[in-house]
Write a structure and sequence with these properties.
alpha+beta
């Protein structure tokens, strides 16, 4: 059991916090509660696995085990990208990045702009004293933009390669289809036109074709006339 858990169980009576109490709790404290201790109204909070306390709202926070003051720089360093921020306030959770106002979003453990979009920093976060808060893996898993997400570079590469393979397959298939169509003549549905008979020609009848052709007559010769038949009269006896 951590020192924070021991401290939390040590004070069963928890007081209802006021607005002033809430305004004096650094954003890097995961859990906190109010109670009476020796007649004083004391704030206890969890900083990592340690328990810290504060009595005077204008005073410092101290470690319970060592009674040493928690440096303000240590509180700032518990936030990711603290070294890239300006005007960082661990109590109001506000800061400036590249001239734009941003705020620490406790539920998602990320920095967000005023329009609720997640801030994407150019460098990896500098590790602070609280590794649970500035874990880059946790921030990337829980952060989300309105309508968009930041993809992992490996995932982007896999998607691009998949698109290239699909495009290559599509082009190859199209080339094969075009090649097969080019080698096969297309048949038309319209029949060939029928040949019409030549002008001036007529069809011959079967009878005319079957007739014996008349032999040609030699030039310069007159055909001999057919012999004349004579009638013979029969003599009476």
């Amino acid at each position: 059991m951590s020192h924070w858990e021991l401290t939390y169980n040590q004070y069963p009576t928890k007081l209802k916090p006021t607005t002033e109490d809430a305004c004096n709790i650094p954003v890097v404290f995961l859990n906190w509660f109010m109670t009476h201790n020796k007649g004083d109204r004391v704030r206890f909070a969890q900083f990592g696995d340690e328990a810290v306390s504060n009595i005077d709202p204008n005073g410092p926070w101290v470690y319970l085990q060592t009674n040493l003051t928690v440096p303000h720089k240590t509180l700032e360093a518990a936030l990711p990208y603290f070294d890239q921020l300006a005007d960082l306030d661990v109590y109001t959770r506000l800061a400036t990045y590249n001239g734009k106002s941003i705020a620490w979003h406790q539920p998602t453990q990320t920095w967000k702009y005023r329009n609720n979009r997640t801030v994407h920093f150019n460098q990896t976060p500098t590790k602070g004293t609280n590794s649970a808060l500035n874990s880059e893996e946790e921030a990337s898993e829980t952060s989300s933009d309105e309508g968009s997400k930041k993809l992992d570079p490996d995932e982007d590469t896999a998607q691009v390669e998949n698109l290239l393979r699909q495009a290559e397959t599509t082009v190859t298939s199209a080339i094969q289809k075009l090649s097969s169509r080019a080698g096969t003549p297309e048949l038309t549905n319209s029949p060939l036109p029928k040949a019409s008979p030549l002008p001036g020609k007529s069809k011959l009848s079967t009878a005319e074709v079957s007739q014996t052709a008349t032999p040609p007559v030699s030039k310069g010769k007159t055909p001999a006339p057919p012999p004349t038949r004579t009638s013979t009269s029969s003599s009476s006896p």
